[in-house]
Amino acid sequence: MGSKRQRLSEPGSSFYGTSPGSSYMYNPTPYAYVGQPPPFPVVKLRGLPFDCTEVDVAEFFHGLDIVDVLFVHKNSKFTGEAFCVLGYPLQVDFALQKNRQNMGRRYVEVFRSKRQEYYKAIAQEVSDSRGGSPRRNAPRAKSYDEGKESAEHTGVLRLRGLPFSAGKDDIMDFFKDYVLSESSIHFTMNSEGRPTGEGFVEFASAEDSKAAMAKDRMTLGSRYIELFPSTHDELDEAISRGR
């Protein structure tokens, strides 16, 4: 997964997607960056609603290829800012046209950003999620973790925070210590068939799913993934909602 993210800035990468409103593959070669790589396709958003989700961001940029959405937190609280990685550099110009347009009742500002700023934000989020921040809300985090530990295991885990570009092979690699088949991995979709950033994994036993919780908040590519004990009923409901 990590290597895929590095290829985002390379001409000809599979992440360069299709040109908005067309059915053909966009060829980035004429997008003249002779002798140097094209810029990393990332924008920064500010003023997002505090209940904003990755799906909301994807719908805000409807028609663009969303590779990743990273929400920015400070002291475990959402700041209303996020970074959005797009399919290829030209899409940054389309994204900037959404500057000061509304998401719900809030107007959202969209700025150009840089690879370094995006990766710095990732490092901060990962550090905070692992208790690296001295001002982290420890009591809240403790009760949150205790709730996970006391939950009954049925062999199913729910995953949250998945990159939109994640595939079943990435999940199998993430849980490489366990025997999984492609049919045991499920990604949830919204009503338009777009990934929601969540998924489910069916393990061979409740013991395996409980042991796999050791991967909670570990990184898949550059994103840290949250794991939750789940059930087959919750899995079936989530899949039926996306149909």
Automatic annotation (TrEMBL):
Keywords: Repeat, RNA-binding. GO terms for molecular function: RNA binding. SMART domains: RRM (SM00360). Residues 155-243 form the RRM domain. It comes from the Eukaryota. The keyword Metal-binding does not apply. InterPro entries: ESRP, Nucleotide-bd_a/b_plait_sf, RBD_domain_sf, RRM_dom. Residues 126-149 are annotated as: Disordered. PANTHER family: HETEROGENEOUS NUCLEAR RIBONUCLEOPROTEIN-RELATED. This is RRM domain-containing protein.
